Amino acid sequence: MSESLRIVPQPMRRQVEEGLRAAIVNGRFAPGEHLPDRVLCDLFGASRSVVREAVRLLEAEGLVTVQPNRGPFVAHLSVQEAAQVYDVRGVLEALAGESFARHATDDERAELRAVWEDLARRGPTADREQLLSIKRRFYDVLLAGARNAYVARMLDQLLNRNMQLRATSLSDPGRLPWTIKELKRVVDAIDRRDPDETFVACREHVQRAADVALRLLATPPGRRDAEVRP
Amino acid sequence: MSESLRIVPQPMRRQVEEGLRAAIVNGRFAPGEHLPDRVLCDLFGASRSVVREAVRLLEAEGLVTVQPNRGPFVAHLSVQEAAQVYDVRGVLEALAGESFARHATDDERAELRAVWEDLARRGPTADREQLLSIKRRFYDVLLAGARNAYVARMLDQLLNRNMQLRATSLSDPGRLPWTIKELKRVVDAIDRRDPDETFVACREHVQRAADVALRLLATPPGRRDAEVRP
DNA sequence: ATTGTCAGATTGACTGACGATCGATTATAG
DNA sequence: CTATAATCGATCGTCAGTCAATCTGACAAT
């Protein structure tokens, strides 16, 4: 996998695009909020053309919706829509896992297991940031070994949408042990070169995560127990 | 399902966007072809801003790739990428089918079967255009009943990519009988309210279609038999 | 044959401008 | 006092023109 060494200066448009995406995903802009291009212009110090082009991209990704003659709004993610997103994510991750089980090299399998062991060992004492980083690594290794750029692209988009959710409301406090167990099943299935089992293990993992997240979303954000039973 | 009757004049940008998409999907622009701003401007009679925004959308959809400082090119779909697209399509359609089996109303189930019967009866004598129309209808009914706007969106994008394939090279001449049989399995599973069976039936259907299409793609477009065994 | 240079073309980005449209506010009529 | 109508400001959609940076291809020089 040789990378091109070419340096290519990030165009202004990319910066706006990524900045705006980050702002939305991290919840700095509330869902439903209006984003007139004027304010985006002086927020990023860019001209209207660049801002509008960037907005188009995010529109296609589903992070903003553009109402005719009213401009861009931060996309609103209802509970039903969130459930749909999780459904799609489930099958896509399942496909990625299945594909990994089929095509990954031995090194990649070993690395995936290493990341999982990292999660199991350091996870319980890690803070949110580190935890997210480890999980992110797990996905990166998985997608790299899956040999399917398409599913990677789509999952990226979906994860952005999900992170929007996560930022606005919920975290998964008590779920870590279950996450570890569920992912172990994935890793084991992969080591056994069992694509079918990997598929259902991945899908079930996402399903569990969805159940918890959606339950949290459904309960109005007032009294919210620490206990979360999967 | 009441639609808003409000007429909203399609903005220029949409027209460019759809026109360009259609042109690419129908193969009027060859894969890899360069699309300078200038050309698109006088082709659609629009200004550069409009054209560039439209191009951004298609970029996010994956129909065009933009090389820095070189501009937009019609996306090229290699055989491996095509296989990946089919893989993704497989799980998404499977999810749609499964979801339909779970959530569709009786009317929707009946309609789906009606469309299938239409295909089985009129299919063998229909021309390409009619055939595509019936299949399209099948998908529309399926997606409507699946109650998942997300999967519908993504499948739309994927179908565009696939149609690009189809336009450039292949049709599926002898496959119709198998298509009918495979879809019957889907419809039957749905009538039995068996989501799992529907899932695998859908996925297998796409897999079969992929096998044929990819085999055609792999053989250099010279001597190409009429016979296609699935 | 490789390297260097230059002109033309194209992109990336910015600016200023114009009418059209929407939302809200105000004014008017009943 | 309510309800409709007129008004107005903000924003969008679109265009045209400018400028610098970069790429392409051709031509010249080593």
Entry keywords:
homodimer, 230 residues, mainly alpha, Arc Repressor Mutant, subunit A, two-stranded antiparallel sheet, 9 helices, globular, DNA-binding
List the helices and strands and how they pair.
Two copies of one chain form a homodimer.
Chain A: H1 12-25, H2 37-44, H3 48-61, E1 64-67, E2 71-74, H4 79-103, H5 106-122, H6 128-146, H7 149-168, H8 176-191, H9 195-218
Antiparallel strand pairs in A: 1-2
The first copy, chain A, binds a DNA duplex (30 and 30 nucleotides) through residues 11-13, 36-38, 46-50, 52, 68-71.
Write down the domain tally of chain A.
2
Please identify the oligomeric state: homodimer
Secondary structure category of chain A: mainly alpha
Mean pLDDT of chain A: 88
**Kindly, what is the distance between the CA atoms of the first and last residues of chain A, rounded to a whole number of angstroms?**
40 Å
- CATH architectural category of the largest domain in chain A: Up-down Bundle
Q: Could you please describe the fold and organization of this structure?
A:
2 copies of one chain form a homodimer. In chain A, helix 1 crosses helix 3. Chain A is built from 9 helices and 2 strands; from the N terminus they run αααββαααααα. The first copy, chain A, has a two-stranded antiparallel ribbon. Helix content of chain A is 68%, strand content 3%. Chain A has 230 residues and is mainly alpha-helical. Chain A has helices spanning 12-25, 37-44, 48-61, 79-103, 106-122, 128-146, 149-168, 176-191, 195-218, and strands at residues 64-67, 71-74. The first copy, chain A, is globular. Chain A has 2 domains: 12-74, Winged helix-like DNA-binding domain superfamily/Winged helix DNA-binding domain (Arc Repressor Mutant, subunit A, Orthogonal Bundle), CATH 1.10.10.10; 79-218, GntR ligand-binding domain-like (Four Helix Bundle (Hemerythrin (Met), subunit A), Up-down Bundle). Chain A binds a DNA duplex (30 and 30 nucleotides) through helix 3.
